[in-house]
Please model this.
Amino acid sequence: MSNVDLILPLLVAVPILMATVPIALGLRFDRTGWGVTTLTTTGLLAATAYLASAVYSEGMVTHELGGWPREFGIQLVADEFSTLIALLVIATATAVLAYMRVGGPRGNTFYAGYLLLTGGLLGLSLTGDVFNMFVFLEIVGLATYALIASGDGPESAVSALKYLILGTVGASLYLIGVGFIFMATGTLNMQVLSENMSEVIAQGGQNLVLMQAAFAFIFVGFALKVAQWPLHTWQPDAYQHAPDGVTPVIAALVSTVYAYALGRLMYTVFGPEFLTSTPYLTEIVVTFGCLSVLAGSTLAVIQTDVKRMFAYSSVAQFGLVVTAFGLVTETALIGGIIHLVGHAVMKAGLFAAAGVIAVSYGARTVDEYAGLADNRPFVAGGTALLLIALIGIPPSAGFIGKWYIAVGSVQAEMWPVAVVILLSTMLTLAYSARLLEKMYFTPATPVESPHPSGPVATDGGQSGGDDEHGNERGDESAGHVDTGAFTDTGRIGRGNPDAVSFGMLALVIVAAIVAVLLGFAGGELHDLLDPFATEVFN
Amino acid sequence: MIELLASRYAYALMFVLMGVGMYMMIANQNLVKKLIGVNLFQTAIFLFFVAVAYVEGGSAPIVPTEGDPGAMASPLPHVIVLTAIVVGIALTAVGLALIVRIHSEYGTLREDTLREVRADE
Model:
């Protein structure tokens, strides 16, 4: 176990170095990207699992890059919190590849971007240095903009540019915050900062004011990045116009890791003492989060496009996480982290399901989902399960997160927050029920589909005979179309069930199963995160 | 107030420059100029970091092997600014690539025209 800390720099360096390989191989061979990426992420998954076993059995693992002491150099830290997020990142990144094999997008350059994104996300979750965090924020941002723009339609470029401008402002505001932190303390290392923090608070005066200004800039910067209402405007466009294969990764990981970074800064750098001693700070954070919950859920209810609906739902769910961070109790913090993980799993599954349905059933709006359960029972079942988990019906990932946050809000004596959580559950039910009703109880209508087959970013798959894996599950789905043949015949030609591979469907089903299983693992997750929370609060 | 401005004018200028960049981003209809606004916004932050590192009467942070160098400017913010400039260049490149693609798809660089074209579709 002595060299377990060497895994940390490798987790960051390997994907970024491997990102050059698909491009280099692309000079000679056409389709190497998927293979190289799968090989890399699977290897990294194994390494992260080994790291996690060390962290959860023996405690924190740190690595000083280049042997520089942490006061000057950059430190990578794997504690209970960051290891959980790193594990989530690499597991999701590996799982979504099963979708991309057939679902696209394709091309060696795309997979180079994908590996860069993975490396950036891992770096962001493992870094222990506030300026290094800015660099990884931008690496993640750049890779995300490129992946969103890899969609076929011109809309994707417009939404990527919008995200680029707003995302850069968010990261720049964070950088100003880092500047203020540096002015106040003269160090950039998170652990050194947290050790100095109580001294700064005790001294008060100029340095404390600088820290408060730093917090304000950092919070607003991250509110932009995490897509908190009213700074969320880039997010629905970006999620809707990104290629169907990319949305699960971006929705599940990018904002999640940004929210992790916010939590890390709030609790490790600033610490509970600063959060509670600064007047109105927790109130502002909680209000911001609660407004996001209510506004995001309400906007989700009125959407017609399914991907857009899920995007607004993400605004609401991240609002819950920010609220949990603002409550400053141990239970709420753990609840926020659990909800972060649970939401990532559910949204990855839901966006993958939206992609599968768009390809195989030609449906992109809520109304077009009519009759889905009769025709595509597997994907409809998976979607239904994920929606129920999202609402928070026990046992599910959505339930335990909300439960801990609600308990935390009661402990903090912030009763309105408990009310907001209840309201958000009802609003989630409102938009989920619309979809469930369409899928299960509305008979399919003849196609008046405004989406002729192959309008989607994944239409690489339509050109389709080029992929031998495309048929396994496709045959089965086609069979179901025939059994549903009591309605008019125009529907049979709808969508292209053959374009859905086993891997694409498996991703949806596995995400649904994991979302339910996490519902039983609440106690275990709590125990895993407990050392982190205890250390933060004492 | 005057005294504060006289001794801290670098910070005041930084916020003015940031405001100009922010205004360009929001008010200018041309996408390329919006991106220039982003660059201006970032440059203001770079200048802020350089101003933070300034030490009254300090020399450049090159440490001689012997002898006392006296007061020196802090080298760390300079390194930060260098890194941030590289990041900024990468961002500009990606942004311009996206703008080139938008122009070839829609034939315009103006945001209001773009909105009309997209609404028609």
